[in-house]
Write a structure and sequence with these properties.
The complex is a heterodimer.
Chain A: E1 5-7, E2 10-13, E3 19-24, E4 31-37, E5 43-50, E6 53-57, E7 65-68, E8 75-79, E9 88-95, E10 106-107, E11 111-115
Parallel strand pairs in A: 2-11
Antiparallel strand pairs in A: 1-3, 3-8, 4-5, 4-9, 5-6, 7-8, 9-10, 9-11
Chain B: E1 4-6, E2 11-14, E3 19-25, E4 32-38, E5 45-51, E6 54-58, E7 61-66, E8 71-76, E9 85-92, E10 99-100, E11 104-109
Parallel strand pairs in B: 2-11
Antiparallel strand pairs in B: 1-3, 3-8, 4-5, 4-9, 6-7, 7-8, 9-10, 9-11
The chains are: A mainly beta, B mainly beta.
Chain lengths: ~120, ~110
């Protein structure tokens, strides 16, 4: 069964460094998302992406964050200058494949980001 | 008032019991309702997806939506220890982001 894959599974970085989290969405999906989950807290929306542009973003998604779909398969989240409070699980999701609604989102296994 | 409210539990039941998990919401624009299962340090796994009001059944799982009360439920019949996980309700208007509840931690005792 097709799945969303994310790399790396765990990333440790120093405060102030840039990180890029990578995702390969399900191949025929059209909508892509990043969510994050701080340990013990709820899953929070960061950004949605459709037709090669951001369709919606939350207040968490400030100028230090950016997303890109550099080719036909990858979808990346860049955090420019990491802060301690960016430590969380980051989940990529995709939806809107042929015959499926754009609201039925499938999630990857996540990247655990630890900022030290 | 939070957009989506979910009792965090934990909820502990014996194997074979019927489990009832619930969420309430405040945004009447929500039309699409999902239940996800999440194991520790893993990604949310989509279990059930329903549009508007009504029931949907899939094996041991039944999802119910009551839009008039802004209340959704997930029932698990014949619960198994492998059902032990955190269950997240999620919903969207369809034109906007998916909003998650905080999750209910469920434990099934053998």
């Amino acid at each position: 069964e097709p799945e969303v894959t994310q790399t790396p599974s765990h990333q440790v970085t120093q405060m102030g460094q840039e990180v890029i989290l990578r995702c390969v969405p399900i191949s025929n999906h059209l909508y892509f998302y990043w969510y994050r989950q701080i340990l013990g807290q709820k899953v929070e929306f960061l950004v949605s992406f459709y037709n090669n542009e951001i369709s919606e973003k939350s207040e968490i998604f400030d100028d230090q964050f950016s997303v890109e779909r550099p080719d036909g398969s990858n979808f990346t989240l860049k955090i420019r200058s990491t802060k301690l409070e960016d430590s969380a699980m980051y989940f990529c999701a995709s939806s809107g494949g042929q015959g499926r609604p754009n609201t039925e989102a499938f999630f990857g296994q996540g990247t655990r980001l630890t900022v030290v | 008032q939070k957009e989506v409210e979910q009792d965090p539990g934990p909820l502990s039941v014996p194997e074979g019991a019927i489990v009832s998990l619930n969420c309430t919401y405040s945004n009447s624009a929500f039309q699409y309702f999902m239940w996800y299962r999440q194991y520790s340090r893993k990604g949310p796994e989509l279990l059930m997806y329903t549009y508007s009001s009504g029931n949907k059944e899939d094996g041991r799982f039944t999802a119910q939506v009551d839009k008039s009360s802004k209340y959704i439920s997930l029932f698990i019949r014949d619960s198994q220890p492998s059902d032990s996980a955190t269950y997240l309700c999620a919903m969207t208007s369809g034109a906007s982001k998916i909003i998650f509840g905080s999750g209910t931690r469920l434990s099934i005792r053998p």
